[in-house]
Structure to design on (71 residues):
């Protein structure tokens, strides 16, 4: 990060520049990119999960006995 930038000239064509900057360093084990590449992360094949088994059916509808209607 550039914190301060200054120029000073006492005689032409000489110019003096002063720069104050802050540098943030990453751990040497990670490097500047922490293992990242320009290609991006590798894709992993997706595994298809087996379809869930159907839920148990509760009680089945009963059929009324034959000939047992109203009077």
């Amino acid at each position: 990060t550039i914190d301060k930038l200054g120029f000073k000239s006492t005689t032409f064509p000489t110019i003096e520049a002063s720069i104050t900057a802050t540098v943030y360093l990453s751990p040497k084990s990670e490097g500047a990119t922490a293992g990242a590449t320009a290609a991006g992360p590798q894709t992993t094949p997706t595994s298809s999960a087996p379809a869930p088994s159907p839920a148990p059916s509760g009680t089945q509808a009963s059929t009324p006995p034959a000939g047992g209607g109203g009077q």
The chain has a mean pLDDT of 78.
